[in-house]
Specification:
The complex is a heterotrimer of chains A (113), B (484) and C (418). Chain A is built from 2 helices and 10 strands, in the order E-E-E-H-E-E-E-E-H-E-E-E. Chain A is of the alpha+beta class. Chain A folds into 2 domains: 40 residues, no CATH class; 62 residues, CPE0013-like (CPE0013-like fold), CATH 3.10.530.10. A 5-stranded mixed β-sheet of chain A has the order 8-5-6-10-9. A 3-stranded antiparallel β-sheet of chain A has the order 1-2-3, covered by helices on one side. In chain A, strands 4-7 form a two-stranded antiparallel sheet. In chain A, a hairpin with a 5-residue loop joins strand 2 and strand 3. The radius of gyration of chain A is 17 Å and the shape is elongated. Chain B is of the alpha+beta class and 484 residues long. In chain B, 30% of the residues lie in helices and 23% in strands. Chain B is built from 12 helices and 23 strands. In chain B, strands 1, 2, 9, 10, 11, 12, 19 and 20 form an 8-stranded mixed β-sheet that branches. In chain B, strands 13, 15, 16, 17 and 18 form a 5-stranded antiparallel β-sheet that branches. Chain B has a 4-stranded mixed β-sheet with strand order 6-7-5-14. In chain B, helix 1 packs across helix 8. The N and C termini of chain B lie far apart (50 Å). Chain C is of the alpha/beta class and 418 residues long. Chain C is globular and about 65 Å long. Chain C is built from 8 helices and 28 strands. Classes of the chains: A alpha+beta (113), B alpha+beta (484), C alpha/beta (418). Strand 23 of chain B pairs antiparallel with strand 11 of chain C, so a sheet runs across the interface.
């Protein structure tokens, strides 16, 4: 038995998952999917900033294009910390392709001129 | 500096600054040293900001004489130095019938000190101060008491002194003083200075400075006072400085408005061992609240935006120490200046110069001495026509940096261009009120920090909030970033 | 003096969505006044994700969320002024502002919407005991320095208060190389959203100390060196023997947000229990034609709800401009009763309301297995069973207005424990 707090939406349902991956306590199907994924293959959206060369900003905010394996987060941060990008940048621009050996990209979340 | 300085003043608080200003009117070369990175950073910064009338000190004492004289000097001085000063008067209130005779005694003492006062009945008090406790039994009105902005008073006094030729070295602590024949060598963390005269105006450290030249038989003990500051809010709380009856611990916990339309409640009174102890604690502040509420029952404590504490340099001699060292008439003491030090400070400066400096140095008036600082512009106080004219010529006064206190970019840039410019966020706050409001710099601190970095051509990580080591942007992120 | 149909004070997500809604409803003569040199307000520094699930049905970061609004504002050519600080408004709706380009300007508005956001409670307001060193920041300040300028305010960090910004910053600072030693919360429950507890604290093994607070700040040489945390009892008195000392170089505060209502104070208006203005069903304040929404009115849990509330205010403003908002007919005072901290709106002119009455409120403490009870006078209009309800989440209840019988002038919302 594992107890989890669902993080899919702000409601934060208290989930209980048994050995056979049966989920209880969820209010919607997304909660069940979350609990199963969390126990078998947890992922997180990672957000950070990347050093940028621009007269308007020193950092461009960024995120993973989709949730990244939880255990790759610090490896991804190391790569994010080593990159410098040049303005102009548009939301969605790929700043790092395939971060931490995954298929997930790091993309810009703000326009920088 | 010349090889032989005429006067070296140790301490750039209100006393040191006003002595420097006074001396700057004579043909002398003057150096002011302070261990802090801004003027007025200790006692002059954290006090009740009251210009007492002078009814309370023991008749005949230096405190009594100089307080009354100092009070009288305030209107002209503040006009010249462009400092907010408002003679709102003080009310010393009796809460119990048993206190009424003391009130009469105080009125008698006022007469001896030469302070105009008036005894008010309960009805008279409540008519002018409707928020006082209905338990009040009577009060002593001292109309000459006032409130002042102690931050700008000290800064502007020193600025005026520097404009008139005084040299100010901040961030430079005096380590030792050697007496050489009829003069002194002052050794600091940054160098040594030979000087004919030393003036010890070092506040809580004035006994330590004096001890550098001879053994002393008194101490200056830090006596801490804790305060609460209330935000500006719609309603009027009090119109006068409200005191309880004084006790052996001092003037007691007062409630007053400030020149910036905040309200101040405090101070507590407690001797502390550490001359740097500026801590606050809950029990003390609870007691401050309780005592203040006896006089003013409905203080909106939910409007408190800051608590702070200050240190009074309390001398074991119980009076200001103004004189010279036993070893030399050229070592002048302006020590133990606790309350009513702020009120007395202009008179202390006159007293020190007339009685001691004039005895050891020839004082020749400068012809071109200017008693005024360059006028400060506050767009918020101008008429619409004046605002329009101002912004036409100086656009930067149209941009607000501190939203709570409505401080414009123009005011900040003006401070940076003056002769005692702010180096830290706190120094800028003391001068302009940026960060003084309810958000306590939550919004403007980053803007101010950036402005300081740009002005001094420094990285944001080099800008200090206050003392050495108080950098806000302590660490760069992404230090491994490679530009390729 | 310039004339405008609608002046919106504050160009964050609330102000921009109000402008876009009013524009869509036909009011084109709009001016947005923004104090920063960018639109979007605080979302610019909220680079984490979790925004937009209600509004866009997708999960966005703060800058992405706000840029959808700022792009729309620019596309539609809605007028806005940056670095423009409103220093006064009057009951006859003259807005006085200044900026570097225009100087001091007065605008006569037909209607005004105040979307001025909120500010963080800080060390001064909560009166932290101990030394007064540097190194004590609000979480939002630390967030700005980190996300917008690239600086960490410390590498050994303790966080007081479990508000969402504090939790988010625990994760952000950890990712950027700081050690977050713990989060202390005075109350026996968290002030932040559950998912932030999980994703920001549990993911990184950061301890959350409930019923704990800072007993003493230590920093003799000017900068913070240690914080002493201790447990408190139900009356918030420290329990002896529970002290924990942490060596730190920064203490972040995430101890609540307060509506920014300087301009409401200038109008001499009353404040509600939210410390914001008192409003009616159309988000109109006590001054006709002046509206308020978003965190300036009451602090929201999600920006998505700020946006929807700002739209309600814009609808109200348009109604007002069209002469359809008269504050006439049957009126209710809405009161927060047992267990409820506050309710918005505080007044409802039911004849002028849309089909549904919308009540927004928060409970004072967490409850399990309760009913939310909405009453008109003594009569129960609706009972809503709740398995769990917590103060960190804002509740929104919609009830068709014809359920109310105009038999009383009072609507109350309360918690009924089973």
């Amino acid at each position: 038995m594992t107890e989890l707090t669902c993080i899919i939406c702000p409601r934060g349902c208290h989930l209980t998952v048994d050995e056979n991956l049966n989920v209880t306590g969820n209010s919607c199907p997304r909660g069940e999917a979350y609990a199963k994924a969390e126990l078998t293959h947890p992922t997180r959206t990672l957000t950070s900033t990347i050093k940028v060369i621009s007269s308007n900003a020193t950092r461009v905010p960024c995120k993973t294009s989709e949730p990244l394996d939880k255990d790759k987060i610090f490896k991804a941060m190391k790569e994010i910390n080593e990159v410098v990008v040049k303005a102009p940048i548009r939301i969605g621009d790929v700043l790092i392709k395939g971060v931490a050996g995954s298929n997930v990209n790091i993309i810009a979340t703000k326009d920088i001129d | 500096m010349p090889t032989m300085i005429d006067v070296t003043i140790i301490g750039a608080g209100i006393v040191g600054s006003l002595i420097a200003r006074k001396l700057s009117s004579y043909d002398l070369n003057i150096l002011v040293l302070d261990k802090e990175n801004d003027v007025g950073n200790v006692t002059s910064m954290a006090n009740s900001a009251i210009v007492h009338s002078g009814y309370d000190p023991k008749p005949g004492s230096l405190k009594a004489i100089l307080n009354v004289k100092g009070n009288a000097l305030y209107p002209k001085m503040c006009e010249e130095l462009d400092v907010s000063f408002d003679q709102i008067g003080s009310l010393t209130v009796a809460i119990y019938d048993s206190q009424l005779p003391t009130l009469t005694d105080l009125a008698e003492r006022s007469k001896q000190n030469g302070v105009p006062v008036k005894l008010l009945s309960k009805e008279e008090v409540l008519a002018i101060e409707p928020n006082l406790s209905p338990e009040v039994k009577g009060a002593l009105l001292a109309p000459t008491a006032g409130i002042v902005n102690p931050f700008t008073l000290t800064v502007h006094a020193m600025e005026n002194a520097c404009d008139n030729g005084v040299t100010l070295h901040l961030d430079e602590e005096v380590i030792s003083i050697d007496k050489i024949d009829d003069h002194f060598k002052v050794n600091t963390t940054k160098g040594s200075y030979e000087t004919k005269v030393v003036i010890d105006a070092a506040g809580v450290y004035s006994d330590k400075i004096h001890e550098m030249v001879e053994p002393i038989d008194y101490k200056v003990e830090p006596r801490k006072g804790e305060y609460m500051v209330l935000d500006h809010y719609g309603e009027k709380l009090v119109n006068h400085v409200i005191f309880p009856l004084p006790s052996e611990k001092g003037k007691g916990i007062l409630v007053t408005k400030t020149t910036s339309d905040n309200y101040l409640v405090g101070p507590s009174s407690e001797f502390v061992d550490d001359k740097e102890d500026l801590s606050t604690d809950k029990l003390t502040l609870d007691d401050v609240r309780r005592q203040a509420t006896l006089m003013v029952p409905n203080i909106p404590f939910n409007q408190v935006i800051r608590t702070f504490s200050g240190l009074r340099p309390t001398p074991t001699t119980h009076d200001f120490i103004l004189g010279t060292a036993k070893c030399s008439k050229n070592f002048i003491l302006a020590s133990g200046i606790e309350s009513p030090g702020l009120a007395s400070s202009p008179a202390i400066a006159d007293y020190v110069v007339e009685n001691f400096v004039s005895k050891v140095l020839p004082l020749v008036k400068k012809e071109n001495w200017n008693p005024r600082v360059r006028k400060h512009i506050h767009p918020r106080d101008l008429s619409e026509e004046e605002q329009a004219k101002l912004v036409k010529e100086h656009k930067e006064y149209g941009e607000i940096v501190c939203n709570c206190e409505k401080v414009s970019l123009g005011e900040i840039l003006d401070e940076l261009s003056r002769s005692v410019p702010p180096k830290t966020i706190k120094a800028l706050k003391k001068r302009t009120r940026a960060g003084f409001g309810k958000c306590q710099g939550g919004f403007c601190q980053p803007i101010v920090l950036k402005l300081l970095a740009e002005h001094y051509h420094l990285d944001m990580s080099d800008i200090l909030l206050d003392k050495d080591g108080s950098n806000i942007c302590r660490y760069h992120t992404k230090e491994d970033a490679k530009n390729d | 003096m310039i004339n405008k149909d609608l002046v919106i004070i504050g160009g964050g997500s609330g102000g921009m969505s109000a402008a876009l809604e009013a524009y869509a409803l036909g009011v084109k003569d709009i001016l947005i006044l923004e104090k920063n040199d960018y639109l979007g307000g605080i979302l610019n520094q909220c680079i984490h994700n979790g925004f937009g699930l209600q509004e866009f049905k997708e999960e966005l970061t703060g800058p992405e969320f706000m840029s959808r609004f700022s792009k729309a504002v620019k596309e539609k050519g809605i007028e806005y002024r940056l670095k423009s600080n409103v220093y006064d408004i009057s009951k006859d709706k003259v807005v006085s502002y200044s900026n570097e380009v225009e100087g001091f300007v007065k605008v006569k508005a037909k209607a005004i919407i105040l979307t001025t956001g909120c500010y963080e409670r800080n060390a001064g307001a909560i009166q932290i005991p101990g030394d007064r060193p540097s190194g004590v920041y609000t979480a939002g300040q630390a967030q700005l320095y980190l996300n917008c300028y690239g600086y960490l305010v410390g590498k050994r960090v303790f966080i007081l208060g479990s508000g969402d910004i504090g939790l988010i910053m625990a994760r952000r600072m950890t990712l950027e190389g700081a050690k977050v030693l713990g989060v202390a919360e005075l109350m026996p429950y968290s002030a932040g959203l559950n998912r932030n507890i999980v994703q920001c604290l549990k993911d990184f093994d950061i301890p959350l100390y409930l019923s704990h607070t800072v007993k003493q700040v230590i920093g003799k040489d000017g900068h913070i060196e240690k914080v002493v945390i201790a447990k408190v009892d139900e009356k918030f008195n420290f329990i002896e023997g529970t002290d924990m000392v942490f060596d730190v170089d920064a203490l972040l505060l995430s101890v609540g947000l307060v509506p920014n209502v300087d301009l409401i104070s200038k109008l001499g208006l009353h404040f509600s229990r939210t410390r914001g203005a008192i409003v009616n069903q159309d988000m109109e304040t006590e001054v006709e034609g002046i509206f308020s929404a978003g965190n300036a009115l009451h602090v929201h849990d999600l920006v998505d709800y700020v946006v929807s509330e700002a739209r309600e205010a814009a609808k109200g403003a348009v109604k007002y401009l069209n002469g359809e908002l008269k504050n006439e007919g049957h009126v209710y005072d809405v009161e927060a009763s047992n267990g409820i901290g506050y309710v918005v709106p505080q007044k409802i002119y039911v004849d002028e309301a849309e089909d549904n009455l919308i009540f927004k409120f928060r409970v004072r403490k967490p409850y399990k297995m309760i009913n939310l009870v909405i009453k008109e006078g003594d009569e129960v209009i609706r009972k809503i069973p709740k398995l769990a309800i917590i103060p960190s989440e804002m509740e929104i209840v919609k009830i068709a207005k014809d359920k109310f019988k105009k038999s009383s002038n009072k609507i109350t919302i309360s918690v009924e424990e089973k």
